[in-house]
Amino acid sequence: MSAPTKDWNPYVAGATLGFVLFLAFALTGNGIGGSGIILKLSTVLSQWLNTEGMMQNAFWAGSVDTPLLSLLNHRLVWGGVGLFLGGLLAGLLRGDGFKMVVLRGPNISVGARITLALVGGTITGWAARVGRGCTSGQALSGGSLLSVGSWAFMLSVFAGAYALAYFLRRQWR
Amino acid sequence: MFPMFSAMGLTQNILFLILGASFGFAMERGGFSDSRNLAAQFYFGDMRVFKVMFSAIVVASTLIVAGTSLGLINMDLVWVNPTFLGTAIIGGAALGFGFIIGGWCPGTSLVGIATGKLDALVFVAGLFLGTFLFGATVPSFWDAYNTWGAMGQFTLMDLTGMSAGVVVISVIVVAAIGFFLTEKVEDMMGERAPLTARQLQVVLGGTGGLILLALVSIGLGAPTVEDRINLQSTELDATLAAREVQMDPGEVLKLMSEFKVPVRIVDVRSPSDYNMFHLKDAEPLPPVEEQGAWLMGMRAKSVVILIGNDEDAATHAWKELMVQKAGKPLFTPYILAGGMNGWVEAYGHHTTGLIHQEAGEDQFHYRFKAPVGSNVDLARPDLHHAPEREYVPKFKQAKSGGGGGCG
User: Fold this and answer.
1) Is B160 an interface residue toward A (CB < 8 Å)?
2) Is the pLDDT of residue B403 over 60?
């Protein structure tokens, strides 16, 4: 069996992402997002939950009566599914098999890592809606179109993560 | 002419499946399916997050700007993330917190799940919780969410007054300096092997190529409004030929009189014609170089009706506005069918002091003894006493929503 494929040089990986992003703009007029599929799925979920008064809220009001099948006709959903499949393919082609793992630093328990992943995910989910996009749809896509808001968003992401990094060093180092 | 698949539909869905998959593949190969690699950025050990993101941005932005200058890409059809400075900073910083706490961002976590990372699965569960948390909390800051630092479509070119080519070269130079410093820091930390000579060649060659492309774009300059009209002439001429936007005087009078929608009567004629006679509340059309800012300040659902003497000048003004209305998908300008001459023919029969005169095409065929401005009934006849007209209504109520692209 041949050795597992190594990571690409980060500059080559970045240039490839940039080229794909360019193709997305050139062909469809839209960038590529990561949190969009989460938003679309949440929209459908919100109707099942539909707790009292929830749908009167300005944010959810637009999603009242979104048919389940409408999910199948949205580029954010297809882009998100593509993202998943592309990652799956790349992972399988590495040739070192498929393992289920919890990634963590050497000094943290699985339980603590999972708890932090849930907390971090929740904050990120909130933040991606406040910022109207995430690292892909706002920072990379909008950043490539030289939007001032997207650049402010991207620099704030780095600033926020660096600001907390010291306190979380036990998780990663 | 690109983008050719800007409408939602099957083709766009399939394209996004392929584009998303390519994106996910490159992310995985870039090492972004490992939360430890992502977090390492913030401990200076392995700064690939910065390298990958900025390489992606310089490549994409240079190709887009060059493609626009070459007349291949019509930026008016590209959705540019509007700027909401306040929420960008708050949302960005919070996403940074979530990133270092959780170890993923939304896009990378999908790739993480695909490669068997259970912490990514839990992170995505958190993303759903966070989305609902946003839904629950946003009413308390709804106004701020929509207004803090809301600047519409606002780019680094607007901010600096520099051309797109110059901005792109500046971004490339800043990124290159950043890459150089990053490599130095990584060398000092000693956790990553330094770049090989071959990798360095690739990076330098790529950077040089991008700068060359940006220079070409500076040489060609950004397309002018006239260039953009020519680029879109097929679509624009089709709309005009189908008479979708030429509004009968009867419909214009109805819209002016009912105040149901914000109507802006915009006069494209000469100042002397305007002074002689114009419709009630008419404003002159700003010169072409000021139209972008003028459009930017306009309410989203404004109904602009362009008034010429006949239709030629108004039709050209309509084309100018159509190619510059990027970021205002709800806004459609209309043209007064038959122009001011048609208006007078429709409503001017009993107007005192009105004199018919011989005049050429797209000139005013009438005059008053002295200029009247809009101080005559003819400037907005009473809807209920004006002669009734039969016409096909052209006004389409703008639908909200649309113009997505959040990610």
Assistant:
1) no
2) no
